[in-house]
């Protein structure tokens, strides 16, 4: 059994942060994790945002660990009734379908409660990737309805910046926070930063599911403040229909987050999937004339250390640059991408995109976009596959 207890909120010793914390015990389960608590930490003057009258902030991470270790979860306190019911009836099934490593488990709680706060914040995460900036553009720059317009930005340290025990992780996170602050300042929005130790419970084979559930948990920790939160989705509805089954155990966004996220909510806080209504390439097209995107777009997978520029070589850099090239907008993004290096090497990447267009939604989008724009891609006459490698004549 996994048992979560001892919920508390307190000022950390350095006087700069407020921590929301609970104990986690593995009873008769072999699990060598480096921590025996789960915590989230926020700047001291934002401490009132943390809700400490339910265990909602720790529920999903505890549930994931219980499903991974195939053991019951016991929470010695109250949780949101809506979140509990959704988890029991639907969320567990969706996660089991996504990953063969997870199994349905019994969940025992003391009872149900609703947090007391009535939050006014409408937020989203600011990673500065295409999906993130697209949501900010649509739901802040272009939105006028105050009930749905973003009024706060967030960045969480819960696994997407590296391993918990790697010295690089805090450096990478710090550089991304600095970029997020710059964007927030340009948009005149507050930025709320949350640190956690959730990723100290990650293992190589479950990092995808734990990361996403940890991000949603960060939102649920803020129920005193947040009433609505947009989760930028990486895949279009069409891409989900065409490629969802192939994303099993690999890509939660393509496989199931379009119907998983709407179930992750409480009586106080609603999560909304934003972005499936458009292809990735259409999001890029919409932001090509936006100065914030030209200055801050950052899609790179390979960041190590404090250098947070786009490498120009990883799959996300290449596919974004190719989309911009097809649109005739690549030079407008020379401040954030190594455009000249890309031009020298892009032919090989284009051949790779053509070769894989039937197996991955983002390649398919690029091939379709090239056809729509009459952009010349390599053809089967000019490239072929040898030993699994695309060779350009
Ligand atoms: Zn890159």
Written account of the structure:
The chain is an alpha/beta fold and 393 residues long. Helix content is 38%, strand content 20%. The chain contains 13 helices and 12 strands. The chain has helices at 56-69, 81-98, 130-141, 167-187, 207-220, 237-243, 252-255, 257-260, 280-287, 291-296, 315-327, 339-355, 361-372, and strands spanning 2-11, 17-26, 37-43, 73-79, 107-112, 121-125, 152-157, 191-196, 226-232, 270-274, 383-386, 389-392. The strands form 2 sheets. It has a 10-stranded mixed β-sheet, with helices on both faces. A two-stranded antiparallel sheet has the order 11-12. A hairpin with a 2-residue loop joins β11 and β12. It is globular and about 65 Å long. The mean pLDDT is 91. Zinc ion binds next to α11. Residues 300-302, 310-311, 313-314, 316-317 line the site of zinc ion.
Topology:
Layout: E1 2-11, E2 17-26, E3 37-43, H1 56-69, E4 73-79, H2 81-98, E5 107-112, E6 121-125, H3 130-141, E7 152-157, H4 167-187, E8 191-196, H5 207-220, E9 226-232, H6 237-243, H7 252-255, H8 257-260, E10 270-274, H9 280-287, H10 291-296, H11 315-327, H12 339-355, H13 361-372, E11 383-386, E12 389-392
Parallel strand pairs: 1-4, 4-5, 6-7, 6-9, 7-8, 9-10
Antiparallel strand pairs: 1-2, 2-3, 3-8, 11-12
Helix pairs in contact: 1-5, 3-9, 11-13
This protein binds zinc ion (ZN).
Residues 300-302, 310-311, 313-314, 316-317 line the site of zinc ion (ZN).
């Amino acid at each position: 059994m996994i048992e979560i207890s001892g919920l508390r909120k307190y000022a950390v010793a350095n006087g700069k942060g407020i921590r929301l914390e609970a104990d986690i015990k593995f009873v008769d389960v072999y699990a060598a994790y480096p921590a025996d608590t789960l915590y989230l930490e926020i700047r001291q003057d934002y401490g009132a945002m943390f809700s400490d009258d339910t265990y909602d902030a720790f529920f999903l991470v505890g549930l994931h660990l219980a499903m991974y270790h195939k053991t019951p979860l016991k929470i010695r306190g109250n949780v949101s009734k809506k979140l509990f019911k959704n988890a029991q009836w639907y969320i567990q099934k969706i996660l089991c379908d996504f990953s063969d490593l997870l199994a349905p488990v019994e969940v025992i709680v003391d009872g149900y409660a609703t947090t007391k706060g009535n939050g006014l914040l409408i937020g989203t995460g600011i990673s500065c990737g295409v999906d993130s900036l697209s949501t900010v553009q649509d739901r802040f720059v272009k939105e006028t309805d105050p009930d749905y317009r973003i009024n706060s930005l967030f960045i969480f340290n819960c696994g997407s910046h590296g391993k918990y025990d790697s010295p690089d992780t805090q450096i990478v996170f710090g550089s991304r926070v600095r970029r997020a602050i710059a964007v927030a300042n340009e948009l005149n929005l507050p930025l709320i930063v949350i640190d956690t130790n959730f990723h100290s419970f990650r293992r190589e084979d479950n990092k995808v599911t734990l990361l996403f559930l940890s991000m949603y948990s960060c939102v649920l920790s803020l129920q005193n403040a947040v009433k609505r939160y947009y989760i930028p989705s990486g895949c279009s509805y069409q891409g989900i229909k065409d490629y969802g089954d192939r994303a099993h155990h690999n890509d939660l966004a393509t496989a199931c987050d379009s119907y998983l996220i709407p179930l992750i909510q409480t009586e106080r806080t609603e999560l909304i999937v934003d972005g499936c209504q458009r292809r990735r390439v259409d999001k890029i097209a919409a932001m090509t004339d936006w100065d914030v995107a030209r200055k801050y777009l950052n899609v790179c997978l390979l960041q190590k250390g404090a250098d947070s520029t786009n490498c120009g070589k990883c799959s996300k850099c290449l596919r974004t640059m190719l989309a911009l090239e097809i649109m005739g907008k690549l030079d407008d993004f020379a401040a954030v991408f190594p455009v000249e290096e890309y031009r020298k090497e892009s032919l090989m990447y284009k051949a790779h995109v053509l070769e894989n267009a039937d197996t991955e939604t983002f390649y398919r989008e690029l091939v379709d976009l090239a056809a729509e724009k009459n952009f010349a891609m390599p053809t089967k006459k000019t490239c072929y596959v040898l030993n699994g490698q695309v060779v350009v004549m």
